[in-house]
Design goal:
Length: 275
């Protein structure tokens, strides 16, 4: 099933029965271009590489003898895929495995690979991690949240982004003040934004004010990150740029969009302090 954000088939914001038997039809893909078209642009206007990393903390199925298996699922959807997967439909889909028997973990994993790849329109990577698995270490980054800034806008304002000519910077910056709102339900989405920047030094106070300007903006996680990437790229023209949001989980899932100018730059699936 392919759909629009505003489609009546979109399960987000609606009462839903929670299935307990496997059902791939629960997945609801949304065209990544939809939000861009609404603003008179296309995703092709910005060039990037990237991936959407999902962590599923309520992944479970039954083994051949009926005993429950639990794990954390890591799902990587290429940013180049034509469709993103709506989060509530993803949750319902994963819940449909709860009372379904598989002969082994690999059978369950392969089933997810096939279904998610079909929904996204591109090859999706699926990994299972045990309950005691550790996470990679987050990059060392300069925290910009303590800067004293005068906030005047709570809607995206690219004019806040500027550089300091003659001063070069290379490294990670981070803010935990990221907030945007779901375009369907209006519920808040909280997160941490990591930015790797190399080039004429970006004004950190302006970057922080820009991040806060997303506070009342309504869009999906993936599109908020792409907007931020585009605005920094167009306003500051860095030599290298990566924008990586680590969003707080909701409904047993967190979504972590990663966009970068550098092909082959690995997206580490670390945890932020609220995940």
């Amino acid at each position: 099933m392919m759909g629009s954000v505003t489609s009546s088939d979109n399960p987000l914001g609606q009462l839903s029965a929670y299935p307990d038997e496997y059902d791939a039809s629960l997945l609801f893909p949304i065209d990544r271009e939809e939000s861009w078209k609404a603003s008179g642009q296309t995703r092709a206007d910005i060039q990037f590489f990237g991936v959407d990393i999902w962590n599923g903390y309520e992944v479970s199925w039954l083994n051949a003898k009926g005993k429950p298996v639990v794990c954390r699922g890591e799902f990587r959807v290429p940013a180049s895929s034509p469709y993103l997967i709506e989060s509530k439909s993803f949750k319902l889909y994963l819940n449909s495995f709860n009372q379904t028997r598989f002969v082994d973990a690999e059978s369950a994993r392969q089933r997810m690979v096939v279904d998610l790849s079909e929904a996204a329109g591109a090859e999706v990577s699926v990994q299972f991690h045990s309950a005691d698995a550790t996470y990679p270490t987050a990059p060392e980054a300069i925290l910009i949240d303590d800067l004293d800034v005068d906030i005047r806008s709570y809607e995206p304002d690219a004019s806040l982004l500027n550089t300091q000519e003659g001063s070069h910077f290379s490294g990670w910056l981070v803010s935990h003040l990221l907030k945007s709102n779901c375009p369907v339900t209006g519920q808040p989405d909280w997160g941490s934004l990591y930015v790797f920047y190399e080039g004429n030094e970006i004004d950190q106070a302006g970057l922080l004010a820009y991040i806060v300007s997303l506070r009342q903006h309504q869009d999906f996680h993936e599109q908020c990150v792409e907007r931020t990437y585009r605005d920094i790229q167009e306003r500051c023209k860095p030599e290298k740029l990566t924008v990586y949001a680590r969003y707080v989980r909701r409904g047993g899932l967190d979504i972590n969009p990663f966009r970068t100018s550098e092909e082959g730059f690995e997206a580490l699936n670390f945890q932020s302090f609220r995940q």
